[in-house]
Amino acid sequence: MSSDKKLTVKRLVIFLCIAFIPFYIVIPVLWSVYGKPLYCGDEDLMAVSYAVGVFGMMIPSAANLLTRLITKEGFRNSYLGANFRGRMGYWTASVAVKLIEGVVMVFLMWKLYMSDLSLPELFPEVGLSTVGMYLAQILFSVVIFFPAFGEEWGWRGYMMPKLLEIMPKPAAVMTGGVIWGLWHAPLTVAGHNFGLDYPGYPFVGIGIMCLMCTLMNAFLTLVTEKTHSVYPAAFIHALNNNLGVGALFAIFGGEAAAEKLDAIGNSDIYTVMLPVFAVTGIISFILLMRKEKPAAAG
Asked: Which of 156, 185, 222, 223 allows an S-S link to 284, with CB 3.0 to 4.6 Å?
């Protein structure tokens, strides 16, 4: 291994240690203090669990910053630029792809679990007011852009470029996705995303999270590489967290939709999400493998 690669590995290890340690310490400690997992649905823990989630999303960016300072790497190729020239398709994708995915997921939920009701019965409130709420939710994604940026400047702005330096793209995308999924493991064990009572808890949840993160990593890495900027990935991440299938049902759905959604378990929702994520991830993976002239550094 060359000296440059050894330095890259060293920096990557330091980054991952800083990124992983807080969740792997804080969440078990809080579980011990409160005597229950953070995401068990207890109203008394809602503020704490929300704060852990939001501030936790900033950890990868802090790890990026600290690693650059500790190793005297500096901030060249920091992915903080905003090069629009010839890249508007990828900037547009930061909005369009996630919005389209949401619509597809709603359609699949209807066909798989709610087809005894017509679409007008499920969504009787579609009109100017609900469209306005939908647009407001998109605008709210700008607010939660900052925590999303906290993850993206770490994972796509630091981890992925380092992985791409030391291994082939296919291996880097898969390795980065698994790392990202395992970073979520303490949250998953504490009930985030999947709850606490599904078959195979918590290993099935951790496995699904690693798979979903790998698929999403392909798309986010593609957009970051093509724009040489972390901002589109951060907005994609914000939209993903803010306008999922549950939010769309809450905005447009009526009482019948709410009752149907309550009867559907988390595993059923992820059964719908996974194939949609898979299509986006596979297309992104194929596009990543294609060679093109390098974009100007940001």
From this structure: 222
Which token pair is 89? 């398709």
Give the span between the Cα atoms of 220 and 100, in whole angstroms. 16
What CA–CA distance (Å, rounded) separates 234 from 142? 10
Segment 138-148, tens digit of pLDDT: 887 777 789 99
In the block, tokens 């060359």 appear at 2
**CB-based burial, 165-180: b 16+ in 10 Å, e otherwise:** ebeebeebbbbbbbbb
Between 82 and 71, where is the model more confident? Answer: 71
Q: Is the pLDDT of residue 298 over 70?
A: no
What's the predicted TM-score (pTM) here? 0.91
Residue 73: pLDDT above 90?
yes
- Asked whether 251 and 186 are in contact (CB, 8 A), the reply is no
Please give the Cα distance from 79 to 298 (Å, whole number): 6
Asked if the bond preceding 202 is cis, omega within 30° of 0, the reply is yes
From CA 298, how far away is CA 293, in angstroms rounded? 15
Q: Are 227 and 289 in contact (CB under 8 A)?
A: no
Specify whether the CB–CB gap between 163 and 176 falls below 8 A: yes
Residue 132: Cβ-neighbour burial (10 angstroms; 0-12, 13-18, 19+): exposed
